[in-house]
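Translate structure to sequence.
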């Protein structure tokens, strides 16, 4: 049964819960207000508004509105349309630029026409509510809180946060991953992956040069070097007295089992997204170069080919298959995908645990005697495995079609 799509927001509930325990009364109040706003928006997923003079739909045209710290979108003031002048308000310009960078990334890298693939307009609402510690995607538009000025700065200040939220719209219009349990963690992971890639693309950073952090520019402005999440080291994004230690797992043996409720983060979607996040990071650095090229293409094509209820093993199998289709069976790219999923302990069905070791040794220059023969054997194993994965995908599709 299909579930209603939730309001998507960048700040995990476990961080907002920590803010409720703050010794600072203003921080507690801001956290409470944010939770109340989030709950209201979750119940109003279909919030819509039309504005006279706004940019016409099509080709991903941007329009930014100023809520002036109110929460009623129909009262927001037009601040900057696609063809309008730069605003005197930095928040307006930051939102406008980030919307454009995300749109241009998807168009130039993946030939995707805006978020829905059909030229969806990009509307953003800045100064949403009073000291709201979150940024939201409500299914059609972006809402940006100003933050409380202590634990969060203005949410328009992070490109990867904005790209993260917009990517929920891409997922809505492709795989439609159900927002709970493993499919929900994949939903969150896709947003982290492509949010990070937008930032890397804008800076022209290689996989090795990137910091792989999410939200470092807007969270805890008084603490340097931390972030909401780390794709490179899930579980190591932060560790301080106020928030404790980053709870994200980086492998299946550390998978966090939570109830499929709001209080349980819908089965831990913001927690367990660390596992596929780490798999993408490992894939990208093992391939090398710009992560949006090979690794990003594999993940994007896999997102388009996935189904709403797919779990980690399903998606891992799809990425393996797509890597073979895009770069060749037994290619370094496909081997990188396989070894990455094995390192985070997500098995590919029918694959022995050590099948990627030969490739890993060769990549590190430690293959020694028999290295070429080992790689030839690995290519043969990968070819056979690719056929198995393709066959399983067809069987699953057939079962779903008769379900």
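Result:
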């Amino acid at each position: 049964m299909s579930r209603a799509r939730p309001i998507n927001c960048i700040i995990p509930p476990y961080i907002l819960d920590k803010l409720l325990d703050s010794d600072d009364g203003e921080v507690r109040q801001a956290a409470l207000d944010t939770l109340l706003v989030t709950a209201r928006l979750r119940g109003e997923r279909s919030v819509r508004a039309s504005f006279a003079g706004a940019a016409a739909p099509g080709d991903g045209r941007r329009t930014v509105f100023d809520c002036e710290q109110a929460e009623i979108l129909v009262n927001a003031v037009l601040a900057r349309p696609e063809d309008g002048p730069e605003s005197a308000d930095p928040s307006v310009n930051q939102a406008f630029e980030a919307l454009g960078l995300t749109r241009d990334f998807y168009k130039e890298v993946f030939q995707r026409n805006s978020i829905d693939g059909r030229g969806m307009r990009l509307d953003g609402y800045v100064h949403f509510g009073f000291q709201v510690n979150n940024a939201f995607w409500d299914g059609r538009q972006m809402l940006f809180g100003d933050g409380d000025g202590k634990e969060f700065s203005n949410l328009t200040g992070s490109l990867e946060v904005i790209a993260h939220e917009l990517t929920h719209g891409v997922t809505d219009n492709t795989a439609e991953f159900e927002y709970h349990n493993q499919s929900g963690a994949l939903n969150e992971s896709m947003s982290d992956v492509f949010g990070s890639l937008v930032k890397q693309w804008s800076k022209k950073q290689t996989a090795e040069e990137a910091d792989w952090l999410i939200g470092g520019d807007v969270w805890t402005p008084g603490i340097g070097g931390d972030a909401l999440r780390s794709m490179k080291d899930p579980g190591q994004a932060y560790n301080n007295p106020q928030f404790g230690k980053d709870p994200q797992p980086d492998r299946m043996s550390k998978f966090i089992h939570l109830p499929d409720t709001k209080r349980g983060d819908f089965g831990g979607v913001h927690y367990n997204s660390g596992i596929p996040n780490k798999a993408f990071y490992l894939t990208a650095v093992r391939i090398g170069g710009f992560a949006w090229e090979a690794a990003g293409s594999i993940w994007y094509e896999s997102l388009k080919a996935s189904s709403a209820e797919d779990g980690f093993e399903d998606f891992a199998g799809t990425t393996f298959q797509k890597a073979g289709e895009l770069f060749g069976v037994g290619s370094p790219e496909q081997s990188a995908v396989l070894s990455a999923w094995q390192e985070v302990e997500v098995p590919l069905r029918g694959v022995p645990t050590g099948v990627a070791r030969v490739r890993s040794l060769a990549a590190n220059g430690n293959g020694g005697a028999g290295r070429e023969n080992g790689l030839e054997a690995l290519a043969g194993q990968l070819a056979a495995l690719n056929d198995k994965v393709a066959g399983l995908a067809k069987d699953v599709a057939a079962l779903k079609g008769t379900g």
